[in-house]
Every structure is written in C-alpha cells, then in structure tokens.
Amino acid sequence: MKENVVMSINQILNLEIIAEIIGIMAATWLVLAGIQRISKFLADRFPRQRLQISSTFPVLRLAAWLVIIGFIISAVIKPGLNTLVAISATAGVAFGLGVQELVKNVLAGVLILFDRPFRVGDMVKVDTYYGEVIQIGLHTSRIHTFDDSTITLPNGMFINKAVTNTNTGALVEQVVVEFSLPGSVNVRNVKELMHEAALCSPYVYRKKTVDILVEDRFDHGFLSVFKVNAYVMNVRFERLIATDITERIKEDIIARGILPKEALLLCGG
Questions:
Q1: pLDDT score, position 6
Q2: DSSP of 197-217
Q3: Which end of the chain is more exposed for a tag (fewer CB within 10 A), N or C?
C-alpha cells in the first residue's frame, strides 16, 4: 500500500502543480498579512472597538486557510477517489503515531476560536502567566505581559488548565487595590478618602461605581483590610490605575494624619 501511495503522489504532484500550490499559499499568506496590518491599524485607530476588531482576524484567518486548502485539493491536485482514500489512511496512521501533541493543540485552537473562552485583547491568567492575548493561532497563542515579555503557549494548555478572563471582551476591567491598616482607624473616614482617591485617578472609568469593601483580619495584630474596587477605562492601564490609586491614598493618609508615616510601611498597596 505504501508503494501505491508513493506512486499516486508522484503522478499527482508534478513540478507545475507544486509551483502552483506554493504560489497560491504565498499569495494567501501575503493577503492575510495585509489584512492583519489593517486590523491592527483599525484597532489602534478606534480603541473603543479594539477588542471586537482584533478578535475577528483569527476566525477569518482560520476560515481562509480552510477554504484555500479545500480549493487546492479539489481544483489544483484533483486526486482520484482511490488515491484520496489511500493518502487519508496513511495520514491518519501518521497522525496517530507521531503528531498527537500537534493534533491536540490544533483541535484546541479550533475550539478556542469557536467556543471563545477568550479573544484577542482579553486579559487572561493561565497557570502562572498573566497578560493580554495578542494572537490566537491554530497551534499556539501569545500573551503579552506587563513586564513587556511575549509568552507563546500551546493551545492545549488553555483546554487542560483553568483560564481566568478578567474582562471577557470588554474594554474596561475591574481593578482591586488592597490596603491593610491598623484596626483602630476610623473606617468611615478612610473609606471616604479611598473613594475620593479612586475617582480622582485619570484612568478610572466613571460610568462604573467605585466600591470600598472592608473586612477585619488578624495577622500579627488586629487589621482592617480595605479593598478598592474600581474600573479602568482600558485594560492596558491596569497597572497604571493601581499605582495611581495607591499613591493618592498614601499621600492623603499622611496629609490628613490618619497614620504616622512610619506605619505606612505595614500597608499593602
């Protein structure tokens, strides 16, 4: 059977057909590269629609390659039924024996594109990695972290592990800033201070409410734990809003004399 498959392939794939296939695939790659550049330009030009624009391209790319592969098989190669069955059987054995991990990741990539647990532009955490999804491919996906690193992860990892999506297709995202203060502080005054500090941040999304949550905790002493829940106007400003709110709260606490400066060393921002 192996010799029959080789003979069938040699009959079908002559130099002219191979050149035509390479030309079609190269043209497809160039067109998709151009569409991707246009998509990035439009996403930067219209930031409010950035997530919707960026998440459309991976699905378009998958559909385009499926159509092109189908076109190459049916219109360029045009294999006979016996040849197609023989090649499919051989390919099935090869996939089963040698490329199980590749097939698993490709199937996971297809599931991600259609089930959409996350999209390009979402902030996700999987395992110990956290960042913005910048690319979803058939085999791997890429995440851009806040320390300006790009991490490439196999798509199977997103299927086998829990994935946390903090914005789920929205441009805004809730950010939590936590402070631990001595249990003797005036809770009402501190909550007002924190609420004002959050609303004054230039990164806050004011159409969403700012909530201050308080709970008591004992950790080497009686503490009041304050959590400032505020929405950032753009997920890419997550660290900036957290830093800005932390600085404002610490400055206001010192300015109002709620705590001595030395006590702030025990505060978590």
A1: 52
A2: HHHH-TTB-TTS--EEEEEEE
A3: N
